[in-house]
Design brief:
The complex is a heterodimer of chains A (371) and B (98). Chain A contains one helix and 30 strands. Helices cover 1% and strands 41% of the residues of chain A. In chain A, strands 3-2-1-30 form a four-stranded antiparallel sheet, with no helix packed on it. Chain A has one helix spanning 141-144, and strands spanning 3-10, 13-20, 27-32, 37-43, 51-57, 61-67, 75-76, 89-91, 97-99, 104-110, 118-123, 126-130, 138-139, 160-166, 174-179, 182-186, 194-195, 216-221, 229-233, 237-240, 248-249, 258-264, 272-277, 292-295, 303-305, 323-325, 333-336, 342-345, 353-356, 362-370. Chain A is globular and about 50 Å long. In chain A, strand 10 (104-110) and strand 11 (118-123) form a beta hairpin. In chain B, strand 3 and strand 4 (67-68) form a beta hairpin. Chain B is globular and about 30 Å long. Classes of the chains: A mainly beta (371), B alpha+beta (98). Chain A binds chain B through residues 33-36, 57-63, 76, 79-80, 82, and chain B through 7-10, 12-13, 43, 45-48, 51-52, 57, 59-60, 93-94, 96-97.
Chain lengths: 371, 98
């Protein structure tokens, strides 16, 4: 019988939540790696039993864990992320040059076809790849070597490469996003990259055509339309239909267009989800109401989804990697909060219920649809 | 045998309970202990000292015989009591971070 496995990364460990296709009764496993920050857990599309975990602490740095049995057992693998060549400098907060220094892995993206190949987006921003199931990591240095690298600046959360999207129709094409440099694309498997930020308008950047410097929070794609991307920027929800060559705003009637998370319905490529957050200085939902907003028109027209979500006194945040969808016939939507709740909807957002209420602050949520 | 006490996070990572016992050949120094530790527990590489520079991580400290040895040379001989296995070598996660 089919089911789902929800992979949750939190400030103090990882949790695995499993259910059958009804998604009513849940088993909770964890904390795995208790006490460590788990920025991301993700499964291989090519082998659902292969999972990768980014585990870190300020004391002991980065560890990568791998499972080959769906999370029952784990094995630490390679954690050496060495920048290619002379690392060089990027801009520090005060505008001065600052040397590139590895801090942590924000996002792990397993290959669509090979369980032993996985990409890692790291802080300070760079993209690494492992072809041996995480034992060794090599930087795809063409990204950081793009001429704009010395002008990249950290966002408030650090200069992190947080989004990696592999094009299912073209193995040579990869999209990534960096806070606060912007989005980039390669069309040759990572050898060379170019910024894809035309059309993004960012307050306080005087040049409306600035090539880099945009605080992209997250990007999502539907696999049937790999040239269409949806972006939650610091402010503004954006879309592109030409693989990032040009973006246009689709914030429409959202109560606020600030936020972090964004995702696309598994079967409806024009149905997208965001969780509006009040502002960059007040990281909680407007009016204390936790609302997911859904657009069935690819943006512009949004409806609030509230059934089962707290509609008063709710002041949590939903971080950029903390929303995901399953691909069951009735699309499930999931998100986690900094208050430790993981909410699930088994009917595309109409009704919500918490799977768990009291985890540590949730950093990431991914979902595997199991056969 | 040299006795090493790891902080809880690293005991979990290395899947050990209690102290770690190590055979160290030659001079007993921070470097020779950590080399032996990482050889026996490769998952600890990078978590106590940097992979490339071999520098102690900022929030990790080394203690033995009630002394903070964190700023000693990694090649300085450790106290005889550590070398004889009478006193442990402590790897400590600094109390920091709130």
């Amino acid at each position: 019988m089919s089911g789902v496995r929800v992979l949750v990364g939190t400030r103090k460990g990882a949790f695995v939540l499993t259910s059958d296709a009804k998604r009513e009764q849940w088993e909770v496993s964890g904390p795995h790696f208790a006490g460590w920050e788990i920025y991301h857990v993700k499964g291989s599309p090519a082998d659902p039993n292969r999972l990768y975990v980014s585990q870190s602490t300020g004391w002991h740095g980065q560890v990568i864990q791998r499972s080959s049995d769906g999370g029952k057992t784990w094995e630490p693998v390679g954690n050496q992320f060495t920048y290619d060549g002379v690392p060089g400098t990027h801009q520090w907060y005060d505008g001065t040059p600052h040397p590139w220094e590895f801090k942590r892995v924000w996002h792990l993206e397993p290959s669509l076809t090979d369980p032993d190949t996985v990409y890692a987006g790291v802080e300070d921003a760079a993209l690494f790849r492992s072809n041996d199931a995480g034992q060794t990591w090599q930087e795809l240095a063409g990204l950081r070597g793009h001429g704009s690298g010395p002008r990249w600046q950290p966002g408030a959360g650090g200069m992190c490469l947080h989004t990696i999207i592999l094009d299912p129709s073209d193995p040579q094409r990869i999209y990534i996003a960096i806070s606060a440099a912007g989005a980039f694309r390669t069309d040759n498997g990572g050898e060379t990259w170019r910024p894809i930020n035309r059309g993004l308008k960012s307050q306080y950047i005087p040049d409306p055509d600035a090539e880099v410097g945009h605080c992209v929070h997250h990007v999502a794609m539907h696999r049937s339309r790999p040239g269409t991307l949806f972006m939650q920027k610091h402010w503004d929800v954006m879309r592109t239909d030409d693989a990032g060559d040009s973006w246009r705003e689709v914030s429409g009637n959202l109560p606020t267009d600030f936020g972090f998370a964004i995702d696309v319905h598994a079967h409806e490529p024009e149905t997208i989800y965001v969780v509006p957050i009040k502002s960059d200085s007040e990281h909680f939902p407007p009016d204390g109401k936790l609302r997911v907003f859904r657009s069935r028109t690819g943006g512009h027209d949004w409806e609030p989804l509230t059934k089962g979500l707290p509609q008063s006194n709710c002041y949590v945040n939903v971080l950029r990697d903390a929303m995901a969808v399953d691909s069951l016939d009735s699309c499930g939507v999931y998100f986690g909060t900094t208050g430790g709740q993981v909410y699930a909807s088994a009917d595309a957002g109409e009704n919500w219920a918490p799977i768990v209420r009291d985890l540590p602050a949730v950093l990431s949520v991914e979902v595997q649809t199991l056969p | 045998m040299i006795r090493v006490v790891l902080p809880a996070h690293l005991r979990t990572l290395a899947q050990v309970k209690g102290d770690v016992m190590l055979e160290v050949h030659g001079d007993v120094t921070q470097r020779s202990i950590l080399d032996a530790l990482e050889a026996s527990y490769p998952m600890l590489r990078g978590t106590i000292r940097d992979h490339d520079t071999q520098q102690r991580r900022g929030f990790v400290r080394f203690f033995a015989c009630e002394e903070d040895l964190s700023h000693e040379s990694p090649d300085a001989p450790l106290p005889d009591a550590v070398a004889r296995g009478e006193e442990p070598f402590f790897v400590v996660g600094a109390i920091a971070g709130g």
